[in-house]
């Protein structure tokens, strides 16, 4: 029994007969697929008439599994951090930044203290969208904050929000 693998994590398809792989297209036996389900258990399905049918099924399973994992983890993060205030989340995020030099920590503290927390500190993490960030940038422009400071504040805000996503 020869097995043909697809991209890592997608699974395999094969025929459970004595025919060599080169003869599969003319062989009357059905294709089988083997993959790991969302729980990590190895699963087999049979009854695919063509190689394309088997590959299509494996692709569908793979896409479904990836979408489910992503949406589950996102839902868990929203539940855990969604009601947390930005100021609290930023402190937790900062604690996880292990390799910051002393000057970088001072710079981050300054950005948080003078720009990010006054404008966004009380906002809940699940209330951020592009309009909130755009309003924050426009406010800095209106207050005539320097371009370098605007860029640094935006970069830190983006890093914190992307971490929360």
Number of domains: 2
Number of strands: 4
Overall, the morphology is rod-shaped
Low-pLDDT runs of 5+ residues are: none
Describe this structure as you would to a colleague:
The protein has helices at residues 51-81, 86-95, 102-120, 130-142, 147-164, and strands at residues 3-5, 12-15, 31-36, 42-48. The chain is α+β, with helices and mostly antiparallel strands. The protein folds into two domains: 3-81; 86-164. Helix 2 packs antiparallel against helix 3 and helix 4 runs antiparallel to helix 5 (147-164). The chain is rod-shaped and about 75 Å long. The relative contact order is 0.09.
Summarize the entry for a quick read.
The protein is α+β, with helices and mostly antiparallel strands.
For this entry, give a set of tags.
165 residues; alpha+beta; 2 domains; four-stranded antiparallel beta sheet; 4 strands
Tell me the layout of helices and strands.
Layout: E1 3-5, E2 12-15, E3 31-36, E4 42-48, H1 51-81, H2 86-95, H3 102-120, H4 130-142, H5 147-164
Antiparallel strand pairs: 1-2, 2-3, 3-4
Helix pairs in contact: 2-3, 3-5, 4-5
């Amino acid at each position: 029994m020869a097995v043909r693998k697809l991209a890592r994590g997608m699974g395999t398809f094969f025929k459970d007969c004595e025919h060599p792989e080169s003869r599969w297209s003319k062989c009357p036996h059905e294709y089988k697929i083997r993959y790991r389900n969302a729980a990590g258990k190895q699963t087999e399905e049979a009854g695919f008439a063509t190689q394309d049918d088997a590959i299509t099924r494996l692709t569908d399973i793979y896409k479904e599994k990836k979408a489910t994992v992503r949406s589950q983890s996102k839902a868990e993060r929203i539940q855990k951090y969604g009601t947390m205030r930005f100021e609290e989340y930023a402190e937790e995020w900062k604690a996880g930044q292990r390799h910051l030099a002393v000057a970088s920590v001072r710079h981050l503290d300054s950005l948080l203290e003078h720009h990010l927390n006054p404008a966004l500190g009380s906002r809940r993490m699940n209330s951020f969208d592009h309009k909130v960030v755009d309003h924050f940038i426009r406010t800095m422009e209106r207050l005539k904050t320097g371009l370098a400071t605007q860029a640094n504040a935006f970069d830190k805000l983006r890093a914190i929000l992307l971490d929360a996503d």
